[in-house]
Amino acid sequence: MRNETIAIHAGYEPEATTHAVAVPIYQTAAYAFDSADHGAALFNLEAEGFRYSRIANPTSAVLEKRIAQLEGGVGALAVATGQAALHFAFVNVADHGGNIVSVPQLYGTTHTLLSHILPRQGIIGRFAESDRPDAIEKLIDENTRAVFAETIGNPAGNVCDIEALARIAHAHGVPLIVDNTVATPILLKPFDYGADIAVHSLTKFLGGHGTTLGGAIVDSGNFPWAKYADRFPAYNKPDASYHGLVYAERFGRTAYIERARSVYQRTMGSVLSPFNAFLLLQGVETVALRMERHVENARKVAEFLREDSRVAWVNYTGFPDSPYYPLVQKYLDGNASSLFTFGIKGGMEAGKTFYDALKLITRLVNIGDAKSLACHPASTTHRQMSAEQQRLAGVLPETIRLSIGIEHVSDIIEDIDQALEKACRSARLEAAE
Fold it and tell me: What are the TM regions of this chain, as residue ranges (predicted)?
């Protein structure tokens, strides 16, 4: 099936009791067992089924199957937020210690997770000087447990060379984990290019309406955990908490996602509620259509900004002179992301005036909404980073990040135009004084 069909139908057929066409909301904490032996089999991971909604829920299961099929993976785990998904994704490869080698262009909270939070748990985040594959390879050593990248950086907008990063990671016996939130599987399927694990903030484009927090981890099923037994003992040695179960032996290709659920979801409980899963499923049904409009609108807005004398620069990878333009053609079929940044002449103060003058475009820190959104990263999402870390992440003091929505593009441009006029008028008055 194609994306548009998967997004509507995958993972669910009308259930036998009521024949409900919409996915039911299974608002229950627990599930009855047929017998003592049935309950034991579920808890021993010997039988499929539901035992407690902290571990799995039928509504969330449909969402997981749908996301996994969109990405072309063997399984997925839905969790409470995108940050919870990232946390589980990292510790699920490195809970025996080690390091994660990452590109520097990251969402601010992801950078904080790798630079400050995980080191307290014995996992070190190593940040390369750039997203170039050779810069990544320099940092990989015998203690590396994964390479990490955002397929499209937030807010930098850089497009990573997934195939090259995967080749380097695999040459050193580690998986490539990617955050595919901005691209979504509609624009890019990273498993097709060698990535092993994909992470999503479902809050963003896949949910698409700014109502619901959620995250997901998707397993390609392709990384050979058993081949690297010394580097990944958690998959190849008996787990005492499950009576000596060995994940690579019991689950084979689904070992990663089954361990994420059985170890981390079960014990840490970053649970996606059934109602939130239902809301996210509504968003997923229209994601293919929305992405078309997002991409089309963003191109027109970027072109408007580039031709405007009031604008100092536009960082949009859909322009042929962008260093990432060849990668947009290779990985995104020429469809540059609707997330991009720009700067106004007059620097930070002019940028703030522009930001405050917006009327239609909403000022907030979310992205991927049906509505157009704007953010000043240096003072919000990337505020905890040093000036040099911000620069490496693609954030300058004057940077404005736009997430272009699906409104009529003329209305979006008119709002930007009037805000630019106010920003430049303010800058001229200050210069005159």
Answer: none
Percent of the chain residues topping a pLDDT of 70: 95
Domain count, the chain: 2
> Which residue(s) pair with 52 in the sheet?
30
pLDDT band at 399; cut points 50, 70, 90: confident
Same domain, 169 and 242: yes
Tell whether 79 and 153 lie within a shared domain.
Answer: yes
Looking at the DSSP bridge assignments, the partners of residue 47 are: none
CATH no. for residue 219?
A: 3.40.640.10
Q: Domain of residue 333: give its range.
A: 288-432
Give the separation between CA 343 and CA 313, rounded to whole angstroms: 5
Confidence band of 379 (pLDDT split at 50, 70, 90) = low
Query: Are 224 and 196 contained in the same domain?
Result: yes
